[in-house]
């Protein structure tokens, strides 16, 4: 049986509803049959009446949401955690594809058809230049050095500097830095993100311990490049391929004049497929056959190696949303069950079932969207901290424009789904059944 305090509260609420209803019916009797909760529509223009109704409804939803403050706070906190986790996991998946998405359709990559671990003769460059549709050729070799400790991982490539930078105009260097890099045999350039991480400045010496190519290699930092846009990788180091080649020739003469990949510039990006086939046909049946593909396909080849991990991350992100949806649905079911007598009283006073359902739906959406907005706002600093912690593992770690929209969309779906069944039950509750709880 309800306590005396509960009866007093119910009686007070009933009196207020009766007072509002009597005023409303006096002002506009015909509206009582339609279940309209306000009477101002009879004396105000339609737009003003709608605004008044909306403000009234919003205030009522807010008060209902805060009736059980602890429950609301815990529910919002759960939604914040779920929406933030959803955004971070989605950003991680985007970061995995960042290299492929930032690739140019006007570049091809030619490598050994067996594996990347097998090199190609340097003299292939001249023959590739002669293929119709090719406007330029450069080459690069993975270095794989260690800076101080293995934890300080970042990509390093030996490149043919003039042709490589011409092929990648998105790497922005000042004319002075570019000139200094070209003339210094031991010179190197690094991205802005990498320089900021290790505190490097132009003129510093950077020692690397070779793994693929043994020995200690010391480079002079001659430039720090910026990206043409936020999707450009700024965590890579480049140095002269000629230095690497000369050193290899002294130590292992048979391994000289070899490179890992050729970067091919296209005259027409739409001709990527026929040009790729033409290049590979030139070296068919040779000792080192080639595989030529678009730069995006080349990058996606690395992503495919971890495709199972990406699918698992995506699955977890949706499972998190489903779990919080179940929690939210339980919260709204408890709320509707506790207020069954109130909804029955409102219907007895002339409020329609749709209005009762709107109260529940509005409360659910208010809680879900509050958690969603807070979750979106928290995603940005957390993503920044995660990117710093991961270092060069994710060279490009940015929250896309679609991610906040997806987070808010997920919060909206949670709010709608959680309120659907409780709202339907409250709208269809029989007055006599609801009033049995009163007394």
How would you explain this protein's 3D organization?
The chain is α+β, with helices and mostly antiparallel strands and about 450 residues long. It folds into 2 domains: about 5-95 and about 305-435, no CATH class; about 115-290, no CATH class. Helices cover about 55% and strands about 15% of the residues. It is built from 17 helices and 12 strands. It has helices at about 5-25, 30, 45-65, 70-95, 100, 125-130, 160-165, 175-185, 190-200, 240-250, 270-280, 295-305, 305-340, 340-350, 355-390, 400-425, 430-435, and strands at about 105-110, 120, 135-140, 155-160, 170, 185-190, 205-210, 215-225, 235-240, 260, 260-265, 290-295. The strands form 2 sheets. Strands 1, 3, 4, 5, 6, 7, 8, 9, 11 and 12 form a 10-stranded mixed sheet that branches. A two-stranded antiparallel sheet has the order 2-10. Helix 4 (about 70-95) runs antiparallel to helix 16. The chain is elongated, with a radius of gyration of 33 Å. Residues about 1-10 and about 20-40 have low confidence and may be disordered.
Summarize this structure as a short list of keywords or feature phrases.
alpha+beta; 439 residues; disordered N terminus; 15% strand
């Amino acid at each position: 049986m309800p306590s005396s305090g509960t009866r007093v509260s119910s009686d007070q609420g009933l009196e207020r509803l009766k007072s509002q209803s009597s005023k409303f019916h006096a002002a506009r009797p015909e509206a009582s049959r339609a279940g309209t909760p306000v009477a101002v529509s009879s004396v105000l223009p339609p737009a003003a009446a709608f605004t008044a109704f909306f403000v009234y409804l919003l205030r009522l939803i807010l008060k209902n949401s805060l009736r059980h403050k602890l429950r609301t706070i815990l529910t919002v906190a759960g939604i914040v955690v779920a929406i933030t986790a959803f955004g971070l996991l989605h950003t991680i998946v985007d970061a995995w594809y960042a290299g492929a998405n930032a690739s140019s359709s006007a570049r091809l990559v030619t490598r050994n058809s067996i594996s990347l671990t097998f090199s190609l003769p340097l003299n292939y460059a001249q023959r590739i230049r002669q293929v119709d549709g090719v406007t330029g050729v450069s080459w690069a070799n993975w270095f794989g050095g260690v800076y101080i400790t293995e934890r300080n991982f970042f990509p390093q490539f030996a490149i043919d500097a003039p042709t490589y930078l011409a092929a990648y105009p998105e790497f922005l260097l000042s004319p002075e830095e570019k000139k200094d890099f070209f003339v210094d045999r031991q010179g190197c350039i690094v991205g802005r993100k990498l320089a900021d991480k290790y505190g490097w400045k132009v003129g510093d010496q950077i020692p690397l311990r070779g793994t693929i190519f043994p020995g200690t290699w010391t480079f002079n930092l001659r430039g720090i490049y910026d990206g043409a846009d936020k999707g450009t990788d700024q965590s890579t180091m480049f140095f002269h391929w000629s230095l690497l080649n000369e050193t290899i020739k002294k130590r292992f003469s048979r391994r000289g004049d070899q490179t890992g990949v050729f970067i091919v510039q296209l005259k027409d990006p739409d001709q990527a497929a026929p040009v790729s086939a033409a290049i590979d046909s030139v070296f068919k049946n040779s000792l080192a056959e080639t595989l030529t593909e678009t730069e995006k396909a080349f990058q996606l080849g690395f992503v495919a190696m971890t495709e199972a991990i990406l699918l698992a991350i995506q699955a977890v992100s949706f499972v998190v949303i489903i779990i919080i949806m179940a929690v939210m649905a339980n919260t709204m079911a408890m709320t509707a069950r506790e207020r069954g007598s109130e909804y029955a009283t409102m219907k007895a006073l002339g409020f329609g079932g749709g209005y009762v359902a709107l109260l529940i739906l509005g409360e659910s959406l208010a809680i879900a969207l509050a958690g969603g907005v807070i979750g979106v706002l928290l995603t940005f600093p957390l993503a920044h901290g995660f990117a710093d912690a991961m270092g060069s593992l994710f060279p490009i770690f940015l929250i896309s424009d679609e991610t906040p929209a997806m987070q808010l969309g997920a919060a909206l779906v949670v709010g709608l789904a959680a309120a659907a069944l409780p709202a339907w039950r409250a709208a269809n509750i029989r007055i006599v059944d609801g009033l049995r709880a009163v007394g």
